[in-house]
Amino acid sequence: MQDKEADRLAFMGQLAAGLAHEIRTPLSTLQANLQMLQEDFEGTADERERRALSRVKLLLKETARLEEILNDFLRFAAGHKLDLRPTDLNRLLEEILEFLGPEAARRKVRVLTSLGELPRVAVDGNLLKQALLNLVMNALQAMPGGGELMVRTQEWRGYAQVDVTDTGEGMTPEVMARCFDVYYSTKKSGTGLGLPTARRIIHEHDGTLGLTSEPGKGSCFTIRLPLPKPAERGGETIPL
Ligand SMILES: Nc1ncnc2c1ncn2[C@@H]1O[C@H](COP(=O)(O)OP(=O)(O)OP(=O)(O)O)[C@@H](O)[C@H]1O
Ligand SMILES: [Mg+2]
Predict the structure, then answer these.
(1) Taking Cα atoms as reference points, which of 213, 216, 212 lies closest to residue 169?
(2) pLDDT digits (tens, 9 = 90+) for 35-74
(3) What confidence score (pLDDT) does residue 144 get?
(4) Neighbouring residues of the ion ligand 2, judged by CB less than 5 Å
(5) Domain boundaries, position 14
(6) Is the domain of 133 the same as that of 181?
(7) 20 to 30 Å CA-CA from 168: which of 52, 95, 110, 222?
């Protein structure tokens, strides 16, 4: 991408994030007042007031949806300031899989892991967790009739590599070409920010996010994060 184009995009991103912030304040006033109206009408026997109450409830639901859209957008648009700490990626993945275990079981998805030995990697744990969660959630959602989720880690040419593989519906070349686009979604209630957010977080860590997929077979997302050079790794230097 040309520098000028990158600058323009960054500027548009800042504008949009500013706008989203501005919308939040009147939105929360709306929400607070609707909440009070709801309390006023709650338990009424009057037919007209009951109708008003159901409209207020509908409006409250819509404001909640708007708030969610804004939060998703801000999470995506906000330039992240990374809080880098040496992190055990395998442990992080175990935490995520433990958290999503019940969800996987409910969806009849068998979770398999093959966690290789990895040195600690300097990452922002919370952000990386979010990126991984997005990938794992997508994998689960791609297997409506159940299947297998495989999470593999290994050291690969100076990178820590994480593969998230599913045996789900896979992607056509058209979906593959667009799946990292902001707001692109093939799901009924998807916002289409999961993958662009994940990729952005990984790029902020100087890493890469790759994808292979085949319709009817499944998809594999591959994250690569640069490892510190052996000399920089704590606890592995030979004392003089
Ligand atoms: N593991 C996968 N298998 C098949 N298709 C996938 C997979 N992951 C992503 N996709 C496709 O890429 C699209 C974009 O994914 P993304 O996570 O950005 O948005 P979403 O999942 O639709 O919505 P959101 O994550 O915001 O709830 C999905 O709608 C789906 O078509
Ligand atoms: Mg998603």
Answers:
(1) 216
(2) 999 999 999 999 999 999 999 999 999 999 999 888 888 8
(3) 95
(4) 138, 194
(5) 3-77
(6) yes
(7) 95
Which CATH number covers residue 61?
1.10.287
Which residues are within 8 A (CB) of 149 and not within 5 positions of it... i.e. 6 or more apart?
Answer: 104, 109, 110, 111, 112, 136, 139, 140, 143, 164, 165, 166
In this structure, which ligand is nearest to the CA of 142? 1
DSSP string, 46-63: -HHHHHHHHHHHHHHHHH
- Which amino acid makes up residue 98? E
Asked if the structure places residue 90 within a domain, the reply is yes
Instruction: Point out the domain boundary residue: 11, 46, 77.
Output: 77
What residues does 221 pair with on adjacent strands?
Answer: 164, 211
As a whole number, the mean pLDDT across the chain is 91
CA distance 46 to 190: 39
CA–CA distance, 223 with 205 (Å, rounded to integer): 11
CA atoms within 13 A on the CB side of 40: 9
Instruction: Pick from 70, 150, 185 the residue to mutate for probing ligand 1's pocket: most ligand atoms within 8 Å of its CB.
Output: 185
